[in-house]
Design a protein that fits this description.
The complex is a heterotrimer.
Chain A: H1 21-53, H2 59-73, H3 77-91, H4 94-102, H5 106-133, H6 136-144, H7 149-164, H8 166-179, H9 191-202, H10 205-234
Helix pairs in contact in A: 1-2, 1-5, 1-8, 1-9, 1-10, 2-5, 3-4, 3-5, 5-7, 5-8, 6-7, 8-10, 9-10
Chain B: E1 2-6, E2 9-10, E3 14-16, E4 22-23, H1 25-40, E5 48-52, H2 58-63, E6 69-75, H3 78-81, E7 84-86, E8 91-93, E9 95-100, E10 115-119, H4 123-134, E11 140-144, H5 147-155, E12 161-165, H6 166-175, E13 182-184, E14 193-200, H7 204-219, H8 222-231, E15 234-235, E16 240-241, H9 248-255
Parallel strand pairs in B: 1-5, 1-6, 10-11, 10-12
Antiparallel strand pairs in B: 2-3, 3-4, 6-14, 7-14, 8-14, 9-12, 9-13, 15-16
Helix pairs in contact in B: 1-7
Chain C: H1 8-12, H2 14-48, H3 52-67, H4 70-89, H5 99-124, H6 129-136, H7 141-171, H8 183-194, H9 197-229
Helix pairs in contact in C: 2-3, 2-5, 2-7, 2-8, 3-5, 4-5, 5-7, 6-7, 7-9, 8-9
The chains are: A mainly alpha, B alpha/beta, C mainly alpha.
Chain lengths: 243, 269, 230
Amino acid sequence: MNYHWNWRIFWEPAPNGTGNYLDMLLSGLVLTIETAICAWIIALAFGAVVGVMRTLPSKTASSVGFAYVEFFRNMPLLVQLFIWFFVLPELLPHGSGLWLKQIPNAPFYTAAIGIGLFMSARVAEQTRAGINSLPRGQKLAATALGLTTAQAYRYVLLPMAFRIIMPPLTSEFLSTIKNTSVAITIGLIELTGEARAMQEFSFQVFEAFTGATVLYLLINVVVVIAMRFLERALAVPGYIGGK
Amino acid sequence: MITIGYRDSSIPFSYLDDNQKPIGFAIDICSKIVEAVQKELKLDKLKVELNPVTSSTRIPLLANGTIDLECGSTTNNPDRLKQVWFTNTHFLTATRFVSKKSSKLSSIDDLKGKSVASTSGTTNIKQLTEANAARNLGINIIPAKEHAESFLMVETDRAVGAVLDDILLASFVAGSKTPDAYVISTDAFSKPEPYGIMLRKDDIEFKKVADAATAALYQSGEGQKMYDKWFMQKIPPKGLNLNTPIGPELKHEFAKPSDSPDPDSYKAM
Amino acid sequence: MFASFDFDVIRRSFGYLFLDGMTFTLTLTGLAALGGLIFGTLIALMRLSGFKLLGRIAGLYVDLMRSLPLVLVIFWFYFLVPYIGQWVTGSSRPIQVGAFTSSLVTFIMFEAAYFSEIMRAGIQSISKGQPAAAQALGLTYRQTMRYVVLPQAFRNMLPVLLTQTIVLFQDTSLVYVLSIPDFLGAASKVAQRDGRLVEMYLFAAAVYFIISCLASFGVRRLQARIAFVH
């Protein structure tokens, strides 16, 4: 392979004046994590609500939930980000559109919200599956105890459902982290973006992408280990994984 | 077979016309190089493939053999010469910024603390990044994939300015819906730097043919004609006329073709 | 609200969007799904083969691909594939691959990791008695897989495989980062040339939405039929 390797490139100063190329990648890593966490909070909140809606007896609630999930699931994430970033501000009245476009860090907020909503459809599906997997007796018993529907969800169904769907939620969280890289198309310089910038400035293509690859693997390992602890701590006795 | 890397929106060097075919000054120059290669190799036919590239992908794609020639608006500089080679210079341009007249920005320092777009992978974004660090401006740099996208960031008020080569800025302004609304800074991030057609490093034979072909083109007066076709006449797809006469430095370079990366080596006649 | 918009730009670029862009997207999706399924099945068989080393390698490959964002993988392969070609063929120069082949290789390699997990689950869903019975009939391992296990695993997993293919269809839009004219790439080239981002991106979103919706509706019907047969 006639490619000139230079692994010391990571310790050479980067043109942005704040340190070397490794610092550049690490700052991208931080932004990746920040974006992923914000997006995940949105995904969990919206996903839980929509997931619950789909299991409610009300026909309207469940069809609204269904439409929501289909809407966010049937468009590529990249296209959704373009809609939020390039299209939405132009459709608003001039003043508010302008305000939206000139928020500092607009790519960050757009990415967090756009990825959050995209992932919320998937969280909703997991939540629904979790609630539906509970024996019908649980809901019936809660009702028999005099709990309202809201109370039954709050105290009985959701605490159970969320503990059951912890493993699939872990992989959805990992997807959220990976999906932040799509935001380089709207100017967010997260880890993949920094690797691309490093490649452009230093011409060391494969070193830059290797650096990013190693960092992504690292986040994955950390998240998987952390979630395994959490899963064990929250496992329901009597269920798989419980004591 | 020879593969040419082209750009989406380096007007008028290499860009897509109404039928999405790449056209432009650099594309015309490259077709001369292809002709010369065909003659050199005594081939009846030389198949030409076209591959789109961006500022970010052009150098790795040339290095890994995906493209053989990059015909666009690539600045020839010593950093890049470590990776690739350039044939004779076909244009000289400095890095400047465009902004809306209404935002009243004239110097680079006026960009302090604002959002500014530039195309990722260009010398422009590098110079902007360096100026930002050296002068402590705190500019929020938005990297765009394509030059057209960088300009659109200004047009849609995403960014107050876009930092690009001034010739590209001039063609975007002229082609915009309201050309009068924009102003290109006199303050520049760089001296006028040379553009060259990029080719693979260490391919001595290929460079010899490309250099001879471009030198012949520029010296024969056909180069001047080709220049006028793209800079002094209406060009597709919108019938825009850039009205940019050839500068004395480039005129001199056309008479004495050079592939030097050094901006100071380009003197007026 | 739409007064200042020019939706005619869509009609003007219709041929380019669909004949070039959508053809690229659908060809890439179809071939990548096929290649990913074949390669993915091989990986699944490696993991279930009982050879420790083979299984470990396959497992590491799947974990690696599933840990990385597709955008990064797209960059990796676009720059790396010619060198791999050079290494494989022993040529003195990197092999010229081209944008389509390079994207195809990328998606086959990436999707194979996801398809292999689906096929693994499919193979494991076949009751142990079946391969045992096949072996008792004198079928070799290869024959057992070819005629007994894989056809059933494939049929059981068909809805999941098709759903993954819809995801793949959406994911191909990411070749946008390389300026390759797939459907979205074509739309964005027109959008940026004419300054018509709103019109083109709304249209692209609608097209992706309709195709994905119809496809997932089809998968749901298929799923209902399979469930009925069982």
